[in-house]
Amino acid sequence: MNLNLSLNNPIDVVDSYKYLGIILDQHLTYETVATTLAESGQRALGAVIAKYKKIHGLGYQTYSKLFHACVAPVLDYCSGVWGYKAFGKIDTVQHRAIRVYLGVHNFAPNAAITADMGWSPSQNRRKIEMLRLWNRLIEMNDNRLTKHIFQWDYLINKNNWCNDVCNILTEIGCNDVFNLKLPVNTSLALSKLLDKHCTNWSDKVKTFSKLRTYIEIKQDFRVEPYVLKPMSTRLRSILARFRCGILPLEIETRRFQPDLNRRREICKICKENVLEDEIHFFFKCNKYNNVRNLFLQSVKDVIPNLEQQTYYNQLRVLMQDEHVLLTCKFLNDLFRIRQNNLYEG
Description:
Layout (H helix, E strand, L loop, with lengths): L15 E4 L2 E4 L5 H24 L5 H16 L3 H4 L5 H15 L7 H8 L4 H17 L6 H12 L4 H11 L3 H5 L6 H19 L9 H4 L7 H4 L4 H12 L5 H4 L5 H4 L15 H7 L4 H12 L10 H8 L5 H21 L1
Antiparallel strand pairs: 1-2
């Protein structure tokens, strides 16, 4: 077969080149490959969501397994090469998966929903993939071409892959591993990355005005009992929105009203001159006294000193595993009464 190869044939100059599924550009920013993989991940997630809705919900373990088996591998394809930076489009896919499961809309702060779901940040997964590639290269036979390229990259250690790995190892306090070219314990590295993320998360959640109640009842980055508990998607959604400060109470909806109404402090349900926030809605509004008394009576036998605690301490107790289902049902009843009163008005 005549391939008609000639030294005189010009080589095309292109902005990017696709090699083994990875799109390379002249600056090696990897923005294009991240965008392409995010689009593929959205399609994979769409298939998971379709199944989730068709059977009217899944348990946490099953949903997490589907995401990490069907979607995450698409998003993280070959991320051992390109995964050091943060890519917002890839994070968006993971956030969408969490929003669907929790039943919240796009205005829910990502810092809150990711902490309640307990999933590791996507960037941490990619950093671990880079460390796994580092381990393979360290243990590779010195005669291989790939190992020679790695040694050359290691000697340069500036604005390249080895420099990114060095930054990751520095981040988790393992500088000696890089200097001595040792394999990395990836389980320990993931734990340290998650610890660092938790520290940053605790500072970040305090910057969201929506999370006025959330920061009082959420103490650490871990999956919440209401996420693990088998319940309907409606009940899970009502508690997730309450926690994230996006339940359409007056304190939330007035933000979208003219300035005159925005400063108004009145509960539309009980007509008292007080701002309707989460504490007023859950504990104080007299329109819900009947259903509230029934709810408190049902938990008094289990938590006899509940009413003697502060409101935020009561919420923490009521959202524990053994009480969270009753709490979700109570919130659902409150919100139904509230909607009925507003519509009748």
